[in-house]
Design brief:
Length: about 300
Amino acid sequence: MFKDKFKLTAEQSLFLAKKKWDENVYCGMKMENRVVTFPQTKTILSGVNVPDVQLDDIQAILNMRDAWKYLINTIDEPITFNYWCKLNELIARNEALEWGKLRTGSVGISGTDYEPPIPRREKVTEELYSIILSDKSATEKALEAFVWGVRGQFFWDGNKRTSLTLANKILVMAGAGILTITDSCMTEFNALLIDYYNTGESETLKTFLYEKAIQGIIIKKESLKRYNPHSYAVSIEHLFNLPYQSAYEIEENPLGYLKNILDDLYEQSDEKSKLIDKFDDKYNKYKHTHLRDWDEVDASQMLKDLRQIKSK
């Protein structure tokens, strides 16, 4: 029923995730009615203190930041019960009785009389895998995972944020976009969510999310040939499991950034050292050169050469 709206490459999907993750953190805060603005959220994410924001809200923002970093750094890892629990561990850290573990007691939900049952691991695991391993589109899996998680309230706290992040893991892995509810849609979302809690009927909520909250990148055919140096920098960051947002430094001077990495690899085997010697000779003309000034054919070949070096 819910077909994928977007079909992004791995590089495009990762670029979208890194571009939109701050908006998604803010979405997570507004879903829980936390008193924080988007500019305040961005400021906190950049490491600057905001005196007017309560400490528990700052903690929640930083927790969701860490969950997004984990998601991006493990983008190729399969979704398992333990992976899902890890997302909650990061999101609900220091906010709940326990984090990263299924709740063992009863909870209530504000605005509704619905009381979710205490979860049993065997049943919950079966339900999670039935969603993840189904033959439905990635978008439909993501929407199903979200509504399942928010109504199930499987953890002591952070269930909406955990469900949102799980849904985005599904979408970003598949290049199907990102799920983010904007300020203008939040009131309608909350009303539909309360109705879903009360009735258990999820189609109206999923349709709303599909129509209003799935974002992506529309690639025009004539722009496909346009050189995007940042996408190559992101691929290098991902290839070597480099720190989050290293792509911006890589883009400034890729050969300079890669020097220490290649020096370490050089000592690992004769085969690697020979490949690195060829690599240095081939791209010496780009020494101290910003990636935007590379020929795209060379940038593409450099990425292939780096993958070959790493695999040997």
